[in-house]
Design brief:
Helix content: 25-40%
Radius of gyration: 24 Å
Distance between the termini: 51 Å
Shape: globular
Largest sheet: 7 strands, mixed
Oligomer: single chain
Length: about 180
């Protein structure tokens, strides 16, 4: 019955029309979901060294500095000043998933290679090389070849990259890695 009180009948829609309508609905929902994902892909906020260090301590992740300092402008320091929250979340995910003791030996301090996804921009952390972490990375992530500097490169399912650089793992966090 329509609003005038008359009864109206409609012919059933052709099956192809129903499929097209359903497909349009699915595509619209997918576009809406993708918009949400892309909105969430905006750069994560930078965190102060003290806040980042507190988060890492709370997660059971140690921070070591060969210079015994956290000044971002001194290459022998280990600074987390300006690290991305997503990077910290990724480190926590690594700690939890691997069960390994982790020690950060490099953060946002000067002295690392540049680039968009660099230490300076808060995307990377260096972790001490331990047998536990090495076994976890090599046994869990896909070996994808050598980086341009010769470091063995592994990629997690979430896209984060683990490069074995001599005495440490250089990790690039594009995402939090499943957090």
């Amino acid at each position: 019955m329509d609003i005038s009180g008359s009864t109206t009948t409609t012919a059933p829609a052709h099956p192809r029309a129903r499929r097209t309508s359903r497909l349009a609905g699915v595509l619209a929902a997918g576009a809406l979901a993708l918009t949400g994902v892309l909105a969430g892909a905006a750069p994560a906020s930078a965190v102060s060294h003290s806040d980042a260090a507190a988060q890492m301590r709370a997660a059971g992740i140690a921070i070591s500095s060969s210079g015994g300092c956290s000044d971002r402008d001194v290459p022998t320091c280990t600074s987390l000043e300006g690290v991305r929250q997503t990077t910290l979340d990724g480190a926590r995910t690594l700690r939890s998933a691997s069960g390994c003791a982790l020690t950060i030996t490099g953060g946002t301090e000067t002295g690392h290679a540049g680039g968009t996804y660099s230490h300076a921009n808060g995307y990377k952390l260096d972790f001490s090389l331990t047998s536990c972490l090495t076994s976890y990375v090599q046994g869990t992530f896909a070996y994808v070849g050598q980086r341009s500097d010769g470091a063995a490169l592994y990629r997690s399912g979430s896209g984060n990259e683990y490069a074995r650089e001599g005495n440490h793992w250089d990790v690039t966090y594009y995402t939090c890695g499943g957090c």
